[in-house]
């Protein structure tokens, strides 16, 4: 225990940290749920707005586009404004967005509000993880980020199901009202929890693009974008492979891919333990990328029975679930006062890789060229893994005495 810090103060800080993690997990849960729930609501939304599902899809595209384009700029802003205050503003904005869409008189107004929601989510996600790097003890970074990412995982996994049930029971407005109410609850709890924590603000003389010249930041940033974006791309196309290979209908494909979600949650919860076993996040990421390459190539190339394919999906999800918190921890630690903009750029880079790989891989898979499609995935994963391995070696050379010790 640090000198001058009483046991009661330590307990208070620990309780504040737990409350903060709850707020952050709730925040990213409702962002994840809001982003993915529309996949189950296209038909009722098209009926409500008296249009076709193609136009309704703009509610998805406008949100994703606003998020990807503005995330780095808003991340830069978060480095220069008190993060706790900015997060509360973003939660309020996201709540207003949901209520507004629920009562929008036209689709055009709903799309405009969805863009507004994309801006709010571009603040909530990177700011949540930047807050962890500032207020949670260093030894607990990976486990804390994994716990908060589990909130997002649950939101992504449960969002469509909750939306479908609520729409059936109470109408299409109910899912939007639920996410808005959840953000208000997170805002109220956060108002109590966050002001008690010292939140750093970048000094005025800090140059927002200086981190781009720091290879210790850009190397893991590019590596994460490649292996994470490629891993998600491969998953987005895995359902069609399951359907064609095992002759499954849509419902059974949906049930089958839950193996990935289960693995993702297990990975989120295991990030801290993996860090303790390997001794550092950089070495954890070497294990993660190796598992990711093995599970994806095995899934696509080998004629596995269905349970074998599901096992690959679970391992694949676990690798991404454990890797994301570890990579985020590395980026947050190395980026200093530019944590917000770096983490936001990481989100944008993931989306860019997905936008590049999915069309190319889907064209080859649609033609039955499984090996060629797998080669597309292997290229992205291989480059990302090579950069990760090199980064781990450099980090080890710089810290030769670092061991698996508490607080190391």
UniProtKB/TrEMBL annotation:
Signal sequence, renumbered to the chain: none
Residue ranges constituting the Major facilitator superfamily (MFS) profile domain according to the UniProt record: 20-396
GO cellular component terms attached to this protein's record: plasma membrane
Subcellular localization, as worded in the UniProt entry: Cell membrane
InterPro entries (alphabetical): MFS, MFS_dom, MFS_Efflux_Transporters, MFS_trans_sf, Tet-R_TetA/multi-R_MdtG-like
Membrane topology recorded in Swiss-Prot or TrEMBL: Multi-pass membrane protein
Transmembrane segments: 20-42, 54-74, 86-103, 109-132, 144-166, 172-194, 221-238, 250-272, 284-302, 308-332, 339-362, 368-390
Pfam families registered for this protein in UniProt: MFS_1
Top-rank lineage group of the source organism: Bacteria
GO molecular function: transmembrane transporter activity
Recorded coiled-coil stretches: none
Primary site of residence: membrane
Keywords, in A-Z order: Cell membrane, Membrane, Transmembrane, Transmembrane helix
Keyword Transmembrane: yes
PANTHER family per the UniProt record, alphabetical: CHLORAMPHENICOL EFFLUX PUMP RV0191, PURINE EFFLUX PUMP PBUE
Name this protein carries in UniProt: Multidrug resistance protein MdtD
């Amino acid at each position: 225990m640090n000198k001058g810090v009483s046991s009661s103060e330590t307990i208070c800080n620990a309780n504040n940290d737990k409350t903060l993690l709850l707020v952050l997990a709730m925040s990213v849960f409702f962002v994840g749920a809001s982003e993915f729930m529309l996949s189950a609501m296209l038909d009722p939304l098209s009926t409500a707005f008296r249009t076709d599902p193609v136009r309704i899809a703009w509610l998805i595209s406008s949100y994703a586009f606003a998020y990807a384009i503005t995330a780095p700029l808003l991340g830069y802003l978060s480095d220069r404004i008190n993060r706790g205050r900015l997060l509360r503003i973003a939660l309020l904005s996201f709540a207003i967005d949901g209520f507004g869409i629920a009562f929008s008189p036209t689709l055009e107004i709903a799309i405009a509000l969805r863009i507004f929601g994309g801006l709010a989510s571009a603040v909530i996600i990177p700011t949540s993880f930047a807050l962890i790097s500032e207020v949670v003890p260093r030894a607990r970074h990976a486990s804390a980020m994994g716990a908060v990412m589990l909130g997002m995982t649950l939101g992504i996994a449960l969002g469509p199901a909750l939306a479908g049930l609520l729409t059936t029971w109470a109408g299409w407005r109910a899912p939007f009202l639920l996410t808005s109410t959840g953000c208000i609850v997170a805002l109220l709890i956060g108002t109590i929890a966050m002001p008690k924590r010292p939140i750093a603000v970048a000094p005025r003389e800090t140059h927002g693009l200086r981190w781009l010249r720091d290879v210790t930041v850009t190397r893991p940033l590019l590596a994460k974008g490649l292996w994470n974006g490629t891993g998600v791309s491969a998953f987005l196309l895995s359902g069609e492979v399951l359907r064609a290979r095992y002759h499954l209908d849509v419902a059974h494909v949906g049930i089958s891919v839950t193996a990935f979600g289960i693995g993702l949650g297990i990975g989120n919860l295991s990030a801290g333990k993996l860090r303790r076993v390997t001794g550092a996040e950089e070495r954890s990421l070497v294990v993660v990328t190796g598992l990711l390459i093995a599970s994806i190539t095995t899934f696509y190339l080998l004629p596995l029975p269905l349970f074998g394919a599901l096992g690959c999906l679970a391992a694949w999800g676990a690798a991404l679930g454990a890797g994301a918190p570890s990579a985020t921890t590395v980026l947050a630690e190395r980026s200093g006062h530019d944590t917000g903009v770096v983490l936001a750029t990481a989100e944008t880079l993931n989306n860019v890789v997905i936008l590049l790989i999915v069309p190319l891989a889907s064209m080859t898979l649609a033609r039955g060229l499984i090996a060629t499609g797998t080669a597309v995935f292997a290229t992205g994963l291989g480059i990302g893994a090579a950069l990760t391995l090199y980064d781990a070696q450099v980090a080890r050379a710089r810290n030769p005495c670092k061991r698996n010790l508490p607080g190391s």
